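Is this the right way to post structure tokens for a design question? Let me know if I should format differently. Anyway, here goes:
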């Protein structure tokens, strides 16, 4: 069986599996960036060998790629949901998956102002490690070898946020009625109407890959 034949077979099998799981919606088709749009640094996001690659081209910008689906303007909003992504990183790399966010930024390097981030990090300099709910529930040790493909699962139900890395739970956080945030994190909140899903291209020395991204809405 050739590589191409195996890839086609795998793609067909994955499609059947996703169809069998009622309610799951693939967000990435493995071919191009259809359904996604960047807020800055559009060259930071490409598709390589069936994987979505996040690698910033501008050293002083944080690029983000937003899921917009078929909408003409704005992003698709998700309130209660479960998201699964299969990812890996190059050595010394930083990235993240944002939710309940939008395109507003809070500083000169274009960090997102609103929403939560699940950290993806293989760098030595960044102390918040993979599986952290950034600046809210932080891990000082990574649960995985980021150079190998691993699975991130994020579940949001009402005020409760849960995160698993390779099915090891790293976060079980319930947002209080009046969260206390530092001045630069005041937008790190869940929104009653939900918000966007976004992927981060952190800097020009960081590369992360996303091989599968799917989501299902929860009641």
């Amino acid at each position: 069986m050739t590589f191409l034949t195996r890839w086609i077979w795998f793609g067909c099998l994955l499609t059947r599996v996703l169809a069998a799981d009622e309610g799951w919606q693939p967000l990435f088709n493995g071919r191009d960036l259809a359904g996604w749009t960047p807020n800055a640094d559009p060259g930071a996001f490409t598709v390589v060998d069936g994987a979505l690659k996040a690698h910033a081209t501008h050293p002083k910008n944080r690029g983000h790629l937003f899921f917009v689906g078929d909408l003409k303007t704005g992003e698709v909003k998700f309130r209660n949901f479960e998201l699964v992504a299969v990812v890996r990183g190059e050595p010394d790399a930083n990235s993240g998956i944002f939710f309940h966010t939008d395109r507003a930024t809070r500083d000169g390097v274009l960090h997102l102002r609103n929403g939560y981030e699940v950290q993806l990090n293989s760098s030595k300099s960044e102390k918040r490690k993979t599986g952290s709910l950034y600046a809210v529930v932080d891990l000082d040790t990574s649960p995985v070898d980021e150079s190998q493909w691993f699975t991130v699962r994020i579940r949001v139900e009402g005020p409760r946020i849960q995160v698993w890395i390779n099915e090891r739970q790293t976060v079980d956080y319930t947002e209080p009625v009046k969260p206390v945030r530092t001045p630069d994190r005041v937008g790190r909140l869940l929104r009653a109407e939900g918000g966007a899903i976004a992927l981060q291209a952190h800097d020009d020395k960081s590369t992360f890959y996303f091989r599968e991204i799917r989501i299902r809405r929860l009641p």
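Format looks fine. Someone answered above. Worth noting: Residues 26 and 214 are 4 Å apart (CA to CA). The chain has one domain: 26-217.
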